[in-house]
Amino acid sequence: MTMNFVEKIHWLGHDSFRIDGSRTLYFDPFQIEGGPGADLIFISHDHFDHCSPEDVEKIRKENTVIITEKDSARKLKGDIRVLKPGENREVEGVKIEAVPAYNTDKDFHPRKNGWLGFIVEMDGVRVYHAGDTDFVPEMNGIKVDIALLPVSGTYVMTAKQAVAAAKAIRPRVAIPMHYGAIVGDEKDAASFQKALTGVVEVTVLQKE
After folding, report:
1. Cα 83 to Cα 104: distance, rounded to the nearest angstrom
2. Which one, of 164, 136, 162, lies nearest residue 149 by Cα?
3. What is the distance between the alpha carbons of residues 64 and 49, in angstroms, rounded to a whole number?
4. Residue 102 burial by CB count (10 A; 0-12/13-18/19+): exposed, middle or buried?
5. Distance of CA 199 to CAs 4, 194, 205, Å?
6. How many CA atoms lie within 13 Å of 76's alpha carbon, on the beta-carbon side?
7. Is 29 helix (H, G, I), strand (E, B) or coil?
8. pLDDT digits (tens, 9 = 90+) for 27-66
């Protein structure tokens, strides 16, 4: 089931994804051309390359629900649900867990800001979108089928640190993100994949 579900995941560049399941989910839409209308939009934090009101409006319908944190909520409009790390919610049949996303050795994403990663469960599959984060202790308790993990370094964890995170989480499939736009490139995704050979299945998606 997991590999079939991977085919429903579309990488739109940077940290942006669309998942076409029983509901249409978007994560951190940024510099997208549009696409199917969203049932749910997840915004991890309020940096411009994650919280882009212009891009949200390209896919927001009248009944779209936006799941985010307090800082991003001030910049967006529509049906907005604000979550804090540790809070759970169910919307449109999708189970949502807000999890911490923060830096441990840099100051771009302070823990005190309460910015988010998301675990969503839809159609029997659990997907983790890590947001902008380092390898944080809370990842040790995460149990998911698919993990979307940043690999570029600079603002988030490096590919090597992301390998350690993937080994801690042990998803069925790991998908690298946060490269090819602001920082990082395909080499980061490739090194992440190579280091996990025989340990965790890695799928490197092509940008759509």
Report:
1. 22
2. 162
3. 20
4. buried
5. 20, 10, 19
6. 35
7. coil
8. 999 999 989 999 999 999 999 889 999 999 999 999 999 9
Structural domains in the chain plus CATH codes: 2-202 (3.60.15.10)
How far apart are the C-alpha atoms of 99 and 2, rounded to whole Å? 22
Kindly indicate the confidence band of residue 185, based on its pLDDT and cuts at 50, 70 and 90. Answer: low
pLDDT given at position 102: 95
C-alpha neighbours within 13 Å on the C-beta side of residue 83 = 25
Residue 121 contacts residue 94 (beta carbons within 8 Å): yes
Q: 87-106: per-residue pLDDT in tens?
A: 999 999 999 999 999 999 89
**Rounded Cα distance, 11 and 1, in Å:** 19
Query: Does residue 140 have a pLDDT over 80?
Result: yes
CA-CA-CA-CA dihedral for 20, 95, 52, 107, to nearest 10: -130
